[in-house]
Amino acid sequence: MNFKNVIGIDISKNTIDVCNHLDQKNDQFSNSKKGLQNFYLWVKSSKNEIEDVLFVYEHTGMYSHLITEFLTDKECHYHIAPALDIKRSMGITRGKDDVIDAKRIALYGYRLKDEITPTKSYSKSITQLKSLMSLKAKLIKQRAAYKGTLSEQKNIYKTKDFKIIFEVQEKMIHYITKQIKTLEYQILEVIKSQEALKQSLKLILSIKGVGMQMATTMIIATENFTKFKNWRKFASYCGVAPFPYQSGTSVKGRNKVSQLANKKIKVLIHMCSMVAIQHNPEMKKYYERRIEIGKNKMSTINIIRNKLIARIFAVIDRQTPYVDTMKFA
User: Fold this and answer.
1) In this structure, how many other beta carbons lie within 10 angstroms of the beta carbon of residue 254?
2) What is the span of the domain harbouring residue 232?
3) 105, 13, 120, 92: which is closest to 55 by C-alpha?
4) Among 60, 64, 108, 174, which one is least packed by beta carbons within 10 Å?
5) Going by C-beta distance under 8 Å and a sequence separation of 6 or more, which residues neighbour residue 127?
6) Rounded Cα–Cα distance for residues 133 and 99 (Å)
7) Tens-digit pLDDT profile for residues 72-101
8) More confident residue, 9 or 122
9) Does 163 reside within a domain?
């Protein structure tokens, strides 16, 4: 799309600092419904029509939720840019100032306005799933901490003297486990409420080695497979796609994965690949064959990671469950 103007937005907990790139006007509004309504009137008072304006801002978690919802309701074009992308576009900077940051975000958006694809209207179901999965992860960490402490204490202290301490921690572990199950049930209910999400989950789970945790994470990360053009883009995003490492005639390193990645998803994919090697006959046979001829173990595992991602995207593209060809061999 050909946007005539870009408005950069720097979002914090209580306020948003904005910059109209063409007019070079700055202002600040409260990060609330009333503040966003005033911001909208401020934008409309400028020379350009709303449909010709691209709003650009960073993803700041819950603080950017309100403005995303607002811009979606107003049918505005907006682009949620990766924070690192904006930071690197600024060059060498010193200090921190919200007004200047808004100007830099506006400049970043204006330079790339012909290349940027506006972020698609956000899904309330995906947002809800993100929150549920995030809370679940926190509870799992808390439970692990209690379990670790309790195990150590039982090995060191006498049960009689520390009985109450043990009992309280055991009750906490039981309670947290119960809450985790409640969240898991709610996650499934949210997915079932949307036919598209339900279908995606069914297709992903048809692949051996991929479980509920990975399937849900994939749906969230890809916004139900609308955020990435193909599986290779997603493999790059989660740090399993190999890249060349060479320069001139002296530097000729082997291909390796980048550290700029979503490490949480990378860990999940690694766990899925290990499960696939154990329980998926095709993957197991492939892994063993490569190891026998002397191929690197981690390199082989990384290939399996990529194979799993490719299969997940393939079943979604075809809208048919995965067919295990080994059954017919």
Assistant:
1) 10
2) 218-328
3) 105
4) 174
5) 65
6) 34
7) 999 899 999 888 888 888 887 777 888 899
8) 9
9) yes
Q: What's the pTM value of the predicted model, to 2 decimals? A: 0.85
Number of domains present in the structure of the chain = 3
174 burial level (CB within 10 Å; 0-12, 13-18, 19+): exposed
| Chain segment 281-297, per-residue pLDDT in tens | 899 999 999 999 999 99
* CB proximity list for 6: less than 8 A, separation 6 or greater: 21, 53, 54, 55, 56, 106, 109, 110, 113
Distance CA 133, CA 215 (A): 12
**Residue 85, Cβ density class (10 Å: 0-12 exposed, 13-18 middle, ≥19 buried):** exposed
Dihedrals phi, psi of 321, to nearest 5 degrees:
-60, 160
* Closest CA relative to residue 78, chosen from 146, 1, 16: 1
Distance CA 277, CA 284 (A): 4
φ/ψ (deg, to 5) at 150: -60, -45
Angle at 38 between CA 33 and CA 42, to 5 degrees: 145
